[in-house]
Specification:
Blueprint (H helix, E strand, L loop, with lengths): L3 H4 L21 H7 L8 H6 L3 H15 L5
């Protein structure tokens, strides 16, 4: 068992050391545009009402049902 003092080190473990000078900005951007994304950003006022994806899905399914749009 490690002493408590060993766990409180301010240094990051070597496996978490990332060299940002080798990072490539937007590396996956073109692939994301080509394949599409399922991420949707809600406006802040809407996000306050719908706190999670389940509540958003429930509301949208209700809207689809009322509008007569067939669902899978």
């Amino acid at each position: 068992m490690k002493a408590k003092g060993d766990l409180e080190s301010d240094e990051m473990r070597s496996e978490y050391d990332f060299d940002y000078s080798k990072a490539i900005r937007g590396k996956y951007y073109n692939r994301l545009i080509k394949e599409g994304s399922n991420v949707i950003v809600l406006e802040p006022d809407i996000a306050q009402v719908f706190r999670d994806s389940a509540s958003v899905n429930k509301a949208l399914r209700s809207l689809l049902k009322e509008s007569g749009v067939p669902q899978d």
